Amino acid sequence: MGAEESLPGDGPAPEMHHYYSKFMRECPSGQLSLHEFKKLLGLQGLDPQGEMYITRVFDIFDLNEDGFIDFLEFIAAINLVIRGKIDQKLKWYFKLYDADGNGCIDKKELLSIFAAIQAINGHTNMSAEEFTNVIFQKIDLNNDGELTLEEFINGVEKDKELMELIEKSFDLSNILKVIQTGRRNSI
């Protein structure tokens, strides 16, 4: 049985087929490069901070780190955004913030990634500095200036306001809408 065939009652098969068709239409090679990813989302010509953010998102979606997002990685990313449980999303956010990959987030990393997200999303009611200070003030319990994954998840899960702030600030639904409806600027 081919990958596109499905048995009756298979659950999300029609949705999967829809995404597969869109993915292959946008990316006939089956491999989405960073350049194609930016083009798909209509995010060419960003400022350096915006470029940094979209590159981090791409790198995190590129699970096998081969420089391309294939269909399985694409579906994993969509599933995380749509159906991901909160702890999965928090792990994803942590990975996004932890730019140097050392397993801790420091203020500089958080400030940098939040400023980059602001450059893309454009709407926020607090500065990158305020956002960073709020996060560290609320969840850096040992005041060492770094957040471990455990501190981050525990701190955010215990604080409803902080959870809402993070979810709003790092909302990927705009990226998902573009993926679902096709290119922002159709050719």
Automatic annotation (TrEMBL):
By what name is this protein known?
GUC1C protein
Tree of life domain: Eukaryota
| Natural source organism | Anhinga anhinga (Anhinga)
InterPro entries, from UniProt?
EF-hand-dom_pair, EF_Hand_1_Ca_BS, EF_hand_dom, Recoverin
State the SMART domains in the record.
Answer: EFh (SM00054)
UniProt GO MF annotations: calcium ion binding; calcium sensitive guanylate cyclase activator activity
Gene3D superfamilies per the UniProt record, alphabetical: EF-hand
Q: Which GO terms describe its cellular component?
A: photoreceptor outer segment
Instruction: Supply the Pfam families for this chain.
Output: EF-hand_5 (PF13202), EF-hand_7 (PF13499)
EF-hand domain: which residues?
49-84, 85-120, 127-162
Q: Which UniProt keywords apply?
A: Calcium, Lipoprotein, Metal-binding, Myristate, Repeat
